[in-house]
Amino acid sequence: MTGPADAVLLTGAGWVRAEQAGEDGSWFDPTEYLGPRGWRYLTPATRYVLAAAGLAMKDAGFDPAALPDDQVGVAIGTNFGAAPVVGRFDDVVAAESAAGISPAEAPAFSVNIPASQISMRHGLRAFNLTLTNPVVAGLEAVLTLRSAVRAGRARAGIAGATEERPGPGAAGVVGAPFPGEGAACLVLERAADARDRAAPPGPEVAGGCSVFVGHLGGEPERLAAAVDRAVAPLLEDAAGELPYAPPAGSFPLRDRVDEACRRVAERAGVTLAPVELPGATGQEFTVSAVLQLAGLAAGPGARLVLAVGPHGHLAGVRLRPAP
Fold first, then answer.
1. How many C-beta atoms surround the C-beta of residue 252 within 10 A?
2. Which pLDDT does position 92 carry in this prediction?
């Protein structure tokens, strides 16, 4: 947990997601968020995250130009952000050779392009990082940025996740009803800076966990012990009812982890109260948990969101009222 001196606040959130698609399957108009030009050769996942980052900064009233450009960083999680374009490039190379790939499109081959584009568009030079851990990478991006701000590596930044719709087989891997797409971003900044600029009130990102418990999936007692070690510290100063976004999706390990978390909370005298939020189905993959976190951030008091991947990665973020 943090104290007032090193608190990191979540001051803004923004997202775009395919809640309703048009008759042609489209749901996102880049010009609405990015203007009439400059996005033509960007992948859909990159367009989504640029839009979400812009909405988050607007929500926070955050102007990155007000800080030195080497003091604002970017951390973005994704599973399938580059998968469709990589698959298409593979088909083109097999059929036509590499000459069939446009030089303007070639940079999209890199999975780091979404985070890099945020940095380039807004002139952010502290760092840009891409995390690709299945399902939990969005929360891990939030924890990574929080750690960087606390360590003085940056004073503020954009954290979040983005996904482009993968093939239908991908949904079953994480227990989602069908594959989705979209992006969600959060603005994190030092409490002192947020206070100085009279930022909208936002919760403190008070702590988190990121552990691998997959190899314990077949051993209930060891799994429970691993979850206890990861989650118990996040409940140290909690009491009574704690609004809770449980792991999204539905698969056996997810259910076992959820049950273990509830037992940990019960021993700590805390009642985890599930809150139904956008992202709960898990269809947006890494974006899902960030959507849940953004929804929890709008509520009062302490809050907890967890995510678990199908192979056993567990991540969590605890929010509490700003000091």
1. 10
2. 64
Report the predicted TM-score, pTM, of the whole model to 2 decimal places: 0.91
- CA 79 – CA 285 distance, rounded (Å): 7
Integer Cα distance of 233 and 238 in angstroms: 10
Rounded Cα distance between 249 and 310, Å, is 10
| DSSP 8-state secondary structure symbol assigned to residue 201 | P
Q: 220: left (phi > 0), else alpha (psi -120 to 50), else beta?
A: alpha
Q: Which residues of the chain have pLDDT under 70?
A: 1-5, 20-25, 82-94, 97-111, 215-218
CA distance 169 to 167: 6
Determine the Cα–Cα distance for residues 64 and 305; give it in Å rounded to an integer: 27
Query: Which run of H or E residues covers position 314?
Result: strand 313-320
Radius of gyration, alpha carbons of the chain: 19
List of E strands, 166-296: 182-190, 204-212, 240-245, 270-274
Residue 84 CA to residue 168 CA, distance in Å, equals 12
Cα(57)–Cα(51) distance, integer angstroms: 10
Number of helices followed by number of strands (H, E) in the chain = 10, 10
Task: Supply the pLDDT for residue 1.
Answer: 43
Would you say the C-alpha torsion 30, 31, 32, 34 has a positive or negative sign?
Answer: positive
DSSP letter at 183?
Answer: E
8 Å CB contact between 314 and 257: yes
Are the C-beta atoms of residues 193 and 156 closer than 8 Å to each other?
Answer: yes
Strands 204-212 and 240-245: unpaired
Whether the Cβ atoms of residue 119 and residue 74 lie closer than 8 Å to each other: yes
Distances (CA, A) of 235 to 111, 156, 205, 226, 261: 35, 26, 13, 15, 10
Count CB neighbours of 281 within 10 A.
Answer: 17
Do 138 and 184 contact (CB within 8 A), yes or no? yes
